[in-house]
Design a protein that fits this description.
Number of domains: 3
Mean pLDDT: 95
Number of strands: 18
CATH topology of the largest domain: FAD/NAD(P)-binding domain
Distance between the termini: 17 Å
Length: about 475
């Protein structure tokens, strides 16, 4: 059922990315259109604060902005181990989607009684994010193009597409079902067999510009940011928490953690998150002739319907970002720079790209990169508190966090401040996902699951292993 070749990538495929710059396009000053600011000074010595935020990605930056909007006099310190946006926030595809549940079907399976509320909160959060971007003057190339779920299996009937579309419509989405002819009119690709185009709550952004724009806004609001300051431990005190760093510490009344895929300083989080590496290729800008050959006039963000799926989109200068398919977990879950590249995966991505767009054969890739996704078994952000309620966290976005991190930062802040809100009362917020087993069972289970997911993509049949995981609530998303 899968259109992707099972043969090894050729020398031509490998040559297409051999000279690519090995870093995220979104964080590349020369090509990505950003101006990297001078890093804020590392923390040296002891400081005090009302609130300390650990992690300078989307979750931490949004939490800082929420805190200062709630109370401009609140003293907020943010510590970041590298520079703001260094992790997943600066390496993702830039799909800014409203869903808080990793799509309606996943939400319906896990939170049926709360799905209507979660969908409404997600759409409100997406709208508020767009309003904040405008209010804060962040030029992050925001495009409201919608998202197109492309069907690869030619045996998938229109009735199945309509069923999915009706679920979306029932929750207020504007949706269009496209048969093969209509879908290929949108995207000129031989792998496309149909599509569902959701025009509601689905946008594209330049994530690097968004992250740096949030950083600037936080500084303007009075947040004290210390970059190259890695938090190493937490210690509860009678009146708060100490965040211990390499060359200093922050004494704070409250702490919000937004470290996500990186090794958590709260050990209990390690049971719930596996860092899964995802890899991306970015083409050189297409010529006018190449651009015309693929159609794509709607500029939608696109993902296919397979377990091992690709996601792809156009940039402002008409490059194609092409990522996904492989989901690489390494024994013990290390997150390190040495894992940011995978020649094997890049080769497969280049091979599949030409399969999807044979008319672009010969196009070269300008950038290649990888990064860790904070994967949890329910595929969506979860929350918790520790240290007597003085520390709160949001984690486990599983690759769908560009918009959800704004919601995650808000809820984590409400939890640590003891606010009773519509969101904090939800089972979605109060309950954690099923934990992953310890090593070596974790690695073995993930390997078997990936194998069975690939088998389902080839056969169209969901086997016993995957059906059992479904019943246990132990998912693994590629």
């Amino acid at each position: 059922m899968s259109p992707w070749p099972r043969s090894a990538p050729t020398a031509a495929h490998r040559a297409s990315f051999a000279d690519a710059i090995p870093r995220s396009f979104w964080l590349d000053e020369e090509h990505g259109g950003i101006e990297r600011p001078t890093p804020e000074p590392a923390l040296v010595g002891d400081v005090t604060a009302d609130l300390c935020i650990v992690g300078g990605g989307f979750t931490g930056l949004w939490a800082a902005l929420h805190a200062k909007r709630d109370d401009p006099t609140r003293d907020v310190v943010l510590v970041e181990g590298e520079t703001c946006g260094f992790g997943g926030s600066g390496r993702n595809g830039g799909f800014c989607v409203a869903s808080l549940t990793h799509g309606l079907p996943n939400g319906l399976a896990r939170f049926p009684e709360e799905l209507a509320t979660l969908e409404r909160l997600g759409l409100e959060n997406h709208a508020d994010l767009c309003a904040d971007v405008e209010r804060l003057g962040i030029d992050c190339e925001l495009e409201h193009t919608g998202e197109m779920d492309v069907i690869l299996d030619p045996t998938t009937g229109t009735d199945e597409l309509e069923e999915h579309a009706e679920l979306l419509r029932a929750h207020g989405h504007e949706v269009q079902v496209l048969d093969r002819e209509a879908a290929r009119a949108q995207l000129h690709s031989p792998v496309v067999q149909g599509a569902v185009w959701d025009r509601t709550g689905a946008s594209l952004v330049h994530p690097g510009k968004l992250a740096l724009g949030l950083r600037r806004a936080a500084l303007d609001a009075g947040v004290r940011i210390h970059e190259h300051t890695r938090a190493e431990d937490l210690r509860e005190t009678p009146d708060g928490v100490e965040v211990l760093c390499a060359q200093g510490r922050v004494r704070a009344r409250r702490v919000v953690l937004g470290t996500n895929a990186f090794a958590p300083i709260v050990r209990e989080l390690r049971r719930y998150i596996v860092p899964v590496y995802d890899y991306v290729l970015m083409t050189e800008p297409l010529t006018p002739e190449q651009r015309a050959s693929i159609g794509w006039e709607g500029r939608q963000g696109i993902g296919d319907d397979a377990n091992q799926f690709h996601y792809y989109r156009l940039t402002a200068d008409d490059r194609i970002l092409w990522g996904g398919y492989d989901a690489v977990y390494r024994f013990g879950g290390p997150v390190a720079a040495r894992h940011d590249e995978s020649d094997e995966t890049f080769g497969r991505l280049a091979q599949h790209f030409v399969t999807a767009f044979p008319q672009l054969e010969g196009v070269r890739f300008s950038h290649r990169w990888g990064g860790a996704i904070d994967t949890c078994s329910r595929f969506s952000v979860f929350f918790g508190t520790t240290h007597g309620g003085k520390v709160a966290y949001a984690a486990g976005y599983t690759g769908l966090g560009v918009a959800a991190t704004r919601f995650g930062g808000r809820v984590a802040l409400d939890l640590v401040d003891g606010r009773d809100t519509e969101a904090t009362r939800l089972r979605y917020v109060r309950e954690k996902p099923t934990p992953f087993p310890p090593e070596p069972l974790r690695s073995v289970g993930i390997a078997i699951t990936r194998n069975r997911m690939a088998a389902e993509d080839r056969s169209g049949k969901r086997g016993l292993w995957l059906r059992t995981l479904d019943r246990l609530g132990l998912g693994f998303d590629s």
